Amino acid sequence: MHRPQPPLSVLIVEDEALLAMDIEAMIEDVGHHVVGEAASLFDVEALSDTLDPHLAFVDLHLAKQTSGLDVARLITLRWPRTFIIFVTANPKKIPDDFAGGHGVISKPFSRSGLQSALRYIEEGVCDPPPTSPQPSSFLASPAFAASWAIQ
Amino acid sequence: MEQRDDWHLTEAIKHELGRGDPFAAAVRATRMPMVITDPAQADNPIIFCNKAFQNLTGYEREEIVGRNCRFLQGPGTDRQSVIRIKSAIENGTNIEIDLLNYRKDGSTFWNALYLSPVRDVAGHIQFFFASQLDVSARVDAQTEIHRRHDEIEREVERRTAELNEALEAKTLLLHEVDHRVKNNLTMIGSLLRLQARTINDPTITAKIEAMLERIDALATVHRRLYQSDNVSKFDVGAFTENLVADLVGASGRDDIDTATDIEPIDIPSGNAAALGLVLNEVVTNAIKHGFADGRPGTLKVSARKSEGQVTITIEDDGPGIGSTDTVDGLGRVLIKRLSRQVGARAEWISADPGTLVRIIFPMEI
User: Which of 4-23 (A) contact B at CB < 8 A?
Assistant: First the structure.
């Protein structure tokens, strides 16, 4: 599997501007780079093919009645190496196979919750398996967690 | 054949009392409508009817005698019942049945028919004897009872459907409110975090950070409440475990070990926010002051039930101030007032080394 090294390039797909700004700031705080922002499926379609982010944070409920699950499927098609993390107040709406996603962060998240989730995800992406304790703010998809077990 | 002739004799009796067969006279005069038919003749015709039968059906004797009883049937008469009567006659058995019959004027009545064969000494059927009774009132009452029963059943079904719809609407509304509260808490957190990064004064930044932690604690309370199946109960044990992991994780201090001994403790959800804030203040303070200046150590947290009482203990192995002096002004007030609000008390004990804080409250606070 492709193992990027930090700093990671990050795409944020979130229709709530405040949250997008907040998540962006916290991602920059831990040293990664936000390379793109999108508020809907259409915005993601409009992004350049060369963006190819290491990591994407995707809200489920997006602008223009579009769904984060469709965004995840699109990202999987366009940039197959990208790790996709859902950020949602409705984690129950994520299907069992995570629609190709790698994990979920539940809203409302705390700063500490997001920070520990970011650290854990970085370990899971760059140098698996993660050595930090599993944070309560983050749940890895079954497929993502299984990929660590077979290292 | 003697008896057969006797029946014919009764036709000649003109007086209420006196001559002739007294039994035949009684049959003629009774209030109970009766007929006798002769199966020996073609189509089993009526050979006798009494006055009561004429009154019931509205026909004159001349219109009745010589006809088969089926002339009383009409379009509303139940075919199955007619078939049952026919087979009773063929088998020579008794039958008792309610039948819809028609009067001469076309009006209907429910006829409680009783039909039985009359046999001679050798057991051969001589006649059929039939008595009728107008039971329209009883049948109508039953029909009415069935109708009302069906009506009530329909009403119950309708009301049940309405209640189910109302429950569905309520559940939907609860989810919607939950979703909005989550969104608002997330946005409040984002606003404060964004503001905090624009401030260069470390004192103010620290205060905003403390506020953020309090809002985060509230958000965690809300998330745990709505994730559970029962929104009326809150597991303060699981919350404490969660809180300690989050706060130690957020401190970025991998030199602080945690040792937890926590069991599930359900409290009424109305107290969850207040108790959650108290615990947030105590744990935050322990991390800030118990392990100040980069001193490593172990944070011990336990939450146990015993004898109707819950004790949550937060213990650091730091310098051991043993009082609330290290807690900032608002934090101190929050611990004091919010504990009192939920019927809990907070004890600060110098543990040598370190500080031990106990939050004690009765079960079912």
Answer: 16, 18-19, 21-22
